[in-house]
Specification:
heterodimer, A: 581 residues, mainly alpha, Cytochrome Bc1 Complex, Chain C, 2 domains, 21 helices, B: alpha+beta, Rieske Iron-sulfur Protein, 14 strands
C-alpha cells in the first residue's frame, strides 16, 4: 500500500463513518469505475443540467432582493429617467437589483441568459435523442420525463419573464389572459380566479412568484433527479464504433476522467454564462418602463422559446363561432392551446407509436445514425420545419420591417407553407437518408473514392478505391437491418376471419413504410466479392505484367474510354506488346 | 407468419462481415504519454489556469469594493457599459471558466485516455425476483382481504376519490368577490364610460374640445373619472377596459359606423384594447384609417365600423358613441355597446 497523506486518512475515516451508517461503500465500489461513452452531442444534456444549476443559484440570490408585489410605489432609486414615476413594487425592486445592488444586474442577466440556454440546450438535446433513436426501449420513460422537463422549462421561463412587471412582461400576461379566456366553458372563471378578478388586478405577480420559485423549480428538480438516476442505472447509449456493441458500453471511467471532464464542463458552462451575463445586456426592463394596461411598444417580442406560440397566434385565420349563445374563439384556442397540446402529446407518445409500428421489442443501447432510420429522421425534420415556420411567424413584423415586405403576404405565405413545406421536408430528408445508406453500402463493397485517377494502358480511366478504415467500418456495420412486418392473412387456416385484421394490416403497411426501402448491409459474400475487386484495384498499381485477368475491371467500373483500334483490356494490350512493356 | 409480434421474426439480419464486431479500440499515445517534458508542460498549464482563477476571484472582490456602481465606461465593441457589472462579469466568468478549462486540460493531457469496456445487463429483473415479487403481492392481497371485503374496497375508492375535493374547493376564494358581486361576464361587459363622461387625455387628464383635434390627429384618452376610481380600487383594472383612442377624419371618409351618428364632426372613439388577446393598440395609419395591433398584427379599419381587415382578431373594434357637453368638451354618450377586449365563453 502506498503512503497515505493525512488528508486521505481523514477522508478514509469519513468514508468508513458514513459507510457504517448508510452502506455507501457498496455504491462506490459499483460506481466509481462506471463507464461513460464520449461524444460531443452527449454534452447537450450536460449543458441543460449545468445551466439549470446556474439558474437555481442566481435565482436564489434574486429572491433575496426581489419584492413580488403589485403595490404601487414611487420610484426613488438611482436610475434617473424613472425617478418619481409610479410603478409596482415588483418593477421598482427589479430596478433596484439592476442599479443599486452591486452585482445584481450581473446575476439578473446571468439568470435570464442561463434560462434561455437551459431551454435551448434541452431542445437540442431532445433533437439529438430523437434523431439517434435514443428514446427506444428501455428509455421511453426518460423520454417522457424529458418532454415534461421541456414543458416545465417553458413554464418556468414564461413565469419568470412576467415577474418584473415591466411594460413588455405585462403585455405578455395580457396575452396569456386572453388565451385563458378562449378556453371553452371554464376559461373566463379560470382567468378571474387566477388574476383575482379583472386584468391586471393586484395579486397575479405574487401568485406567479410562488409558481416560479417553488412549484416549477421543485418539479424540475424532481424530474431532473429521476432523469439522471435512469441514465445512471440504464447506462448511457453509445454510437456504433470499434468495439462497441449493443451489450457493452465503451468509454471513460467515472473516476477520474469523466468526473474531471464533466465536472470541469460545469465550470465552463457556469463561466461562459457569467461572461455573457456580464458583457451582454438582456431584457433591459428600465427601457420598457412600468406596466400600464393601455400602453404597448411596437415590435415587442417574447423570449425565443415562446416565439413559435406567438407565431401560431399570428398565423391563425380569424375564426370564431357562436354556439347556443356561447363563444368559441378558434382563432386563439386552436393556436395557443390545441396545437401545443397536440405537439407535446405527440412528442410524449412518439416512442410508443414507433415501437408499435415497427414491432420492435428489443433493448437498444447502440444509437441509430439518423440516416439509418430515414422515416424517423424525415418525421423529425418535418416537425422541425413546422416549428421553425411558426417561429418565423412570431417574428413576421421584424421580417417585414427588415426586408421591407408586406406583413400580410408573409402571414399568407406562412399559412400555406405550414401545410406544404413539412411534407416536402419529410420526403426530401427521407430520400437523402436513403442515398446516404446506399453510399455506405457502396463504401463497404468498394471502399472509398481515393481521388486518385489512374489511366490504364488501354486508355481506360479508373478512380482507385481504397478500403475504409476499421473505425468507419465499425460505424457503418453498427446498423441493424430490420425487416418490415409481414401482411397478416385475412383468414386463418380454417377460414376464420382474422380478428383486428384491419389494424394489423395498417400496422404492417406502416412498418413497410418505415423499413421497406432501407438499404440492407451487404452480405458476407457480397463483401468478399467487393474486396476481391478492391484487390484488383490495388494490383493495377503493381507492375502491369504481374497483373492478370484485367477483364474484371471493366465489369466492375464501366465507363471505359475507347478509341477505334485501341486495345480494350489490359490483357489485349499485353498481347499486342508481346507480353512486354 | 401468423403472429408478427415476436421479436424473432424481425431478426432478418444479413450475414455480418467476416470479422468480430468487437474490433480493437484504436489508441495512439499522446505526446504527454511519451515525452516527460510535454507532461510537465501540461502540468504547468493546468496549474496556471487554477492560479489565474484564484487571482480573478481576488480581482472580483477588489472590483466589488473599488468600483462605484454608477460608473460608466467605454469599452470597444461593447460601447458604454456599467463598469462594475462589466468587471464583475469578466472576473467571475473567466475565474469560473478557468477552473473548468484546467480540469478538462488535466483530464485530456495527463489522465489515461484509453477507452474501457463494461458489459450491460438487461433491465428486466431475473425470473426469481419477479416470482418473489408476485408471491409477496399475493400474500398482501390475501392477508389484507382486499379482494374479499368488497364493501371496504369500494368505500375506500370512494373516499380516496373525494379526498382532494376540499383542496380544490378552497381555491374558490382566489377570486375574492364580495357577496352579490356581478358575474365575470357582467364585469367584462362594463366599463367606466357612461353618458356625459368626459374624455380626457391619457397622462395629463386634460379634457378635449373638438377643435383640439385636427383631421388626421389621434389621442390616447381615458374617462375623467379614472384617476379617482383607480385610487379607490387600488388597481389598474378600470384603465385596462376604458382606454380609448380618439381620431379625427374627414367626415366624408367615414364609410360606416357601429351606430348612427356615433361620431362628432368626424371625431371617432374606439376601444384601445385589441379584440384578439387584449394588447393595447396604438399604431394608426391615418391615410388608410387602419389600426394595427403590434402584438399579432390584427388590422382594423376605423373608417368602416372598426371592422377587421386582416389578422387573427375575429371581432371589430368596439366604438364608443361620443358627443360634446354644454361646455363643448368631448364626452361619451353611453358605455360601449358590446364588451371590449378579447372574446370569452359567456360573451355570446
Amino acid at each position: 500500500m502506498t503512503a497515505t497523506s493525512p488528508v486521505e486518512q481523514v477522508g478514509g475515516g469519513v468514508a468508513t463513518y458514513v459507510d457504517q451508517r448508510v452502506g455507501s461503500n457498496k455504491f462506490l465500489a459499483r460506481n466509481l469505475g462506471k463507464v461513460f461513452p464520449d461524444h460531443w452531442s452527449f454534452m447537450l444534456g450536460e449543458i441543460a443540467l449545468y445551466s439549470f444549476i446556474v439558474v437555481l443559484l442566481t435565482g436564489t440570490f434574486l429572491t433575496l432582493f426581489f419584492k413580488p408585489s403589485m403595490v404601487e410605489v414611487l420610484y426613488d432609486g438611482s436610475y434617473v429617467p424613472l425617478k418619481g414615476i409610479k410603478m409596482s413594487q415588483a418593477y421598482a425592486s427589479t430596478l433596484d437589483i439592476s442599479f443599486d445592488v452591486r452585482g445584481g444586474l450581473l446575476l439578473r442577466q446571468m439568470h435570464h441568459w442561463a434560462a434561455l440556454i437551459f431551454i435551448a440546450a434541452m431542445s437540442v438535446h431532445m433533437f439529438r435523442v430523437f434523431f439517434t433513436g435514443a428514446f427506444r426501449k428501455p428509455r421511453e420513460f426518460n423520454w417522457i420525463i424529458g418532454v415534461v422537463l421541456v414543458t416545465l422549462g417553458l413554464g418556468a421561463g414564461f413565469s419568470g419573464y412576467s415577474l418584473p412587471d415591466d411594460l413588455l412582461s405585462g403585455t405578455g400576461l395580457q396575452i396569456a389572459r386572453g388565451i385563458m379566456q378562449s378556453i371553452p366553458v371554464i376559461g373566463t372563471w379560470m382567468a378571474f380566479l387566477l388574476f383575482d378578478g379583472e386584468f391586471p388586478g393586484t395579486e397575479f405577480i405574487s401568485r406567479l412568484y410562488a409558481v416560479h420559485i417553488l412549484l416549477i423549480p421543485g418539479l424540475i428538480l424532481a424530474m431532473v433527479t429521476i432523469h439522471l438516476m435512469l441514465v445512471w442505472t440504464q447506462k448511457h447509449t453509445q454510437f456504433p464504433g470499434p468495439g462497441r456493441t449493443n451489450d457493452n458500453v465503451v468509454g471513460y471511467p467515472l473516476l477520474p476522467v469523466y468526473m474531471a471532464k464533466a465536472g470541469g464542463f460545469f465550470f465552463v458552462v457556469f463561466g461562459v454564462i457569467a461572461l455573457i451575463g456580464g458583457l451582454v445586456t438582456i431584457n433591459p426592463i428600465w427601457i420598457f418602463g412600468p406596466f400600464m394596461p393601455d400602453q404597448v411598444s411596437a415590435g415587442s417580442q417574447p423570449d425565443w422559446y415562446i416565439g413559435w406560440l406567438d407565431g401560431a397566434l399570428r398565423t391563425m385565420p380569424n375564426w370564431e363561432s357562436t354556439l347556443f349563445g356561447f363563444t368559441i374563439s378558434w382563432n386563439i384556442f386552436v393556436p395557443a392551446v390545441i396545437i401545443p397540446g397536440i405537439i407535446f402529446t405527440a412528442l410524449a407518445l412518439y416512442p410508443f407509436l414507433e415501437a408499435w409500428v415497427t414491432g420492435d421489442k428489443k433493448e437498444h443501447h447502440l444509437l441509430d445514425r439518423p440516416r439509418n432510420a430515414p422515416t424517423r429522421t424525415g418525421i423529425g425534420v418535418m416537425a422541425l420545419s413546422f416549428y421553425l415556420l411558426l417561429w418565423i411567424g412570431g417574428g413576421n413584423d421584424i421580417i417585414a420591417l427588415t426586408f421591407g415586405m408586406s406583413i400580410n403576404s408573409i402571414t399568407w405565405f406562412l399559412r400555406i407553407a405550414l401545410f406544404v413545406v413539412p411534407p416536402i421536408m419529410f420526403v426530401v430528408t427521407r430520400r437523402i437518408c436513403l442515398g446516404l445508406q446506399r453510399r455506405d453500402r457502396d463504401k463497404l463493397l468498394h471502399g472509398y473514392e481515393s481521388g486518385r485517377i489512374l489511366r490504364l494502358p488501354h486508355g481506360e480511366f479508373i478512380e482507385v478505391h481504397q478500403p475504409i478504415n476499421a473505425k468507419e467500418l465499425a460505424v457503418i456495420t453498427g446498423k441493424t437491418d430490420i425487416a418490415p412486418l409481414a401482411l397478416p392473412p385475412a383468414t386463418d387456416a380454417d377460414g376464420v376471419r382474422n380478428k383486428h385484421f384491419h389494424v394489423k394490416k395498417l400496422r404492417a403497411k406502416l412498418s413497410g413504410f418505415f423499413y421497406s426501402e432501407n438499404v440492407a448491409l451487404p452480405t458476407a459474400a457480397e463483401i468478399e466479392e467487393g474486396q476481391h475487386h478492391a484487390a484488383h484495384d490495388a494490383a493495377i498499381e503493381a507492375p502491369l505484367h504481374a497483373y492478370e485477368d484485367a477483364d474484371q475491371i471493366n465489369r466492375a467500373h464501366g465507363g471505359v474510354l475507347h478509341h477505334p483500334g485501341m486495345p480494350e483490356t489490359n490483357a489485349e494490350q499485353l498481347a499486342n506488346d508481346g507480353g512486354h512493356l | 407468419m401468423s403472429d408478427h409480434s415476436s421479436p424473432e421474426s424481425h431478426e432478418n439480419v444479413p450475414a455480418k462481415l467476416g470479422y468480430s464486431p468487437v474490433a480493437d479500440i484504436e489508441h495512439k499515445p499522446r505526446l504527454t504519454d511519451t515525452d516527460p517534458k510535454a507532461a510537465r508542460r501540461a502540468e504547468r498549464q493546468v496549474a496556471t489556469m487554477f492560479v489565474l482563477s484564484i487571482l480573478l476571484v481576488i480581482a472580483f472582490v477588489v472590483a466589488y469594493i473599488g468600483i462605484d456602481k454608477s460608473t460608466i465606461v467605454y469599452i470597444p465593441l461593447f460601447g458604454e457599459v456599467g463598469a462594475l457589472n462589466f468587471a464583475l462579469g469578466l472576473c467571475m466568468g473567466l475565474g469560473v471558466f478557468l477552473i473548468g478549462a484546467g480540469a478538462i486540460q488535466w483530464a485530456k493531457k495527463l489522465m489515461p485516455d484509453t477507452e474501457v469496456v463494461a458489459q450491460r445487463h438487461e433491465m428486466a429483473s431475473p425470473e426469481a425476483a419477479t416470482e418473489e415479487a408476485e408471491a409477496n403481492y399475493q400474500r398482501g392481497k390475501t392477508e389484507s382481504g382486499f379482494a374479499q371485503y368488497k364493501i371496504i374496497r369500494r368505500t375506500l375508492i370512494g373516499a380516496l376519490a373525494l379526498f382532494p375535493i376540499p383542496l380544490v374547493i378552497m381555491l374558490r376564494d382566489l377570486w375574492s368577490t364580495p357577496a352579490g358581486s356581478p358575474s365575470p361576464d357582467a364585469i367584462l361587459s362594463k366599463t367606466l364610460w357612461k353618458k356625459g363622461e368626459r374624455i380626457v387625455v391619457d397622462g395629463t387628464y386634460v379634457p378635449v374640445k373638438a377643435e383640439d383635434l385636427p383631421v388626421g390627429g389621434l389621442i390616447s384618452a381615458v374617462p375623467a373619472d379614472l384617476l379617482e376610481v383607480e385610487e379607490a380600487e387600488g388597481n389598474l383594472n378600470a384603465r385596462g377596459k376604458a382606454a380609448i383612442i380618439v381620431i379625427r377624419m374627414d367626415p366624408s371618409d367615414i364609410r360606416s359606423q357601429q351606430g348612427d351618428g356615433w361620431d362628432y364632426q368626424g371625431i371617432l372613439a374606439f376601444s384601445k384594447i385589441c379584440t384578439h388577446v387584449g394588447c393595447p393598440i396604438a399604431l394608426y395609419e391615418q391615410r388608410t384609417h387602419h389600426l394595427l395591433c403590434p402584438c399579432h398584427q390584427s388590422t382594423f379599419d376605423l373608417a368602416d365600423s372598426g371592422n377587421v381587415v386582416f389578422g387573427p382578431a375575429a371581432r371589430r373594434m368596439p366604438q364608443l358613441p361620443i358627443g360634446v357637453d354644454a361646455e363643448g368638451y368631448l364626452v361619451a354618450m353611453s358605455d360601449f355597446a358590446e364588451p371590449i377586449g378579447p372574446s370569452f365563453w359567456e360573451r355570446g
